[in-house]
Amino acid sequence: MLKVLWLAPNFNHYKARFLNHLAKDSNVELTILSGAGRENMGDKELEKDWDFKHMKVNIPKANFGFSMLVRKALRREFSGFDWILIPAEKKNALLFIYALLLRVLYKKVKLFSYNHEHVKPKEGEVKRLDVFISKWFYRCFDKVIFYTEKSCSNAIKNKLINPKKAYWANNTIDTTEVEKWYDFEMPSKDVITLVFIGRLIKIKRVKVLIDFFNDLCNKSKENYRLEIIGDGPENSIVQEALLTNSKITWHGTLIDEEKIAPIMKKASLVFVPGLSGLSINHAFAYGRPYATLQADRHGPEISYLKDEYNGFILAGNFNRIEMFLKNRNEIEVFCQNAYNTSKHLNVNIWKQQILSALNEK
After folding, report:
1. CATH code at 2-171+346-359
2. What are the pLDDT digits (tens) for 226-245?
3. Where along the chain do its domains lie?
4. pLDDT tens track for 289-334
5. What span, in angstroms and rounded, lies between the C-alpha atoms of 27 and 82?
6. Which pLDDT belongs to residue 48?
7. Which helix (H) or strand (E) is 260 found in, with range?
8. Cα distance between residue 68 and residue 178, in whole Å
9. How many CB atoms lie within 10 A of CB 78?
10. Which residue of 31, 52, 297, 315 has the smallest Cβ count within 10 Å?
11. Measured in Å, how far apart are the chain's first and last C-alpha atoms?
12. Matching fold, domains 2-171+346-359 and 177-345
């Protein structure tokens, strides 16, 4: 029996669902130590009877790595596990040092992380300090599992990590939950629907989305619709748009695929102009192409998005989307390509990749 403690400063519904698949494995005993998440950022936690043991400390993500309560909980539980996950983030450095000290006392316990290619800067490009901190983290961990194969290979190529410690498991969503409520089909020919799914925060560029859609409606007589799934501090932009454009629908935060599926079924394209991550997986699970703008700080899931195959990575000109939405044949080809991509990103493959990494001697 593999005993795993997984620290999750932000325990959103995506994470809870896919970790529950790991907990369902008969050879795994999984415990989650979670924090209170990100304050006022549009996240929503899912309350269910999970297969894992769940311990929670009421500490927001920003303070999780500095909290004495978290350190006390970690010390209390430390010796009872084979593997403990500490997120490799700068704000968790103090907590990680504490875990390293505990590992001296309890030598059978191993530490690992599941993360990006390197620690992320708060803004702008990766700096030398980010590279230095990443190397320090990876040198001290027993194993590091990266979010994508590309992240793993880049970390090795850039000499951030010893290849013997490096593994990867495609970060994903609970695809089985999608499959409960949805069978792949093409979108309606009568209404051309764009869907935005994600938190309504600055980095998602919600204003760009609204401006594009309003312009699209003004220029064309096509029957367009925009459906927005999500909430957050930028929701006032959406609320204002609702007053002037009746073709926009705002659903707020939805975390149940039973409610998400009917909306995604209508989509010809999922469009998130800003930084993108698991929303790419979400779109592909429904067989829907995904469009976003070029950026340096997209999540590693951007490697799943192949420009002009299952979506678009735009330099800033939206003409390509307008052309796409008017081409029914292209919509169907891209939908099929997106669905084919999703088959390699299902949660059961993710589980096997995680277990393979932890079990390898």
Report:
1. 3.40.50.2000
2. 999 999 999 999 999 999 99
3. 2-171+346-359, 177-345
4. 999 999 988 999 999 999 999 999 999 889 999 999 999 999 999 9
5. 12
6. 80
7. helix 257-266
8. 39
9. 17
10. 315
11. 15
12. yes
